[in-house]
């Protein structure tokens, strides 16, 4: 029933203006509804997107909440670092980052960063 349908993420933000500035300045994303002041809708590749809404509950999740599939994680990390994005370093059983990038069991690469609202976002290398 849902397997062929597009999906999108829903992310919380304590300060929607601060989040909007971060997503614009650091990630190069502009909302589809620029006049709204309590929620923002973003479109990304292949008809995907996400919704950011204001709530005091932002930043409480300790898991990855949304991720982008990219062709080159190292290049994307470097580009985002140049814009001031800080990547997380992890050292868990089965997952260790080096310079912010982990090599996954299947050989792909992944990296994680936090937005201004405490949401954990990821990059995963495709193919």
From TrEMBL:
InterPro entries referenced in this protein's UniProt entry, alphabetically: Glyas_Bleomycin-R_OHBP_Dase, VOC_core
CDD domains for the chain: VOC
Classification via Gene3D superfamilies: 2,3-Dihydroxybiphenyl 1,2-Dioxygenase, domain 1 (3.10.180.10)
Domain VOC: from-to ranges: 5-126
Domain of life per record: Bacteria
Name of this protein: VOC family protein
Organism lineage: Bacteria, Bacillati, Actinomycetota, Actinomycetes, Micrococcales
């Amino acid at each position: 029933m849902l397997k062929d349908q597009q999906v999108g993420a829903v992310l919380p933000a304590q300060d929607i203006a601060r989040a909007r500035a971060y997503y614009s300045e650091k990630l190069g994303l502009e909302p589809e509804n620029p006049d709204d002041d309590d929620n923002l809708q973003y479109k990304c590749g292949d008809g995907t997107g996400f919704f950011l809404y204001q709530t005091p509950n932002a930043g409480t999740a300790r898991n990855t909440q949304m991720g982008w599939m990219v062709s080159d994680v190292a290049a994307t990390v470097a580009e985002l670092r140049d814009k001031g994005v800080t990547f997380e370093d992890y050292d868990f059983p089965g997952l260790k980052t080096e310079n912010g990038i982990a090599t996954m069991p299947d050989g792909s690469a992944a990296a994680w960063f936090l937005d201004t609202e405490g949401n954990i976002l990821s990059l995963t290398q495709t193919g």
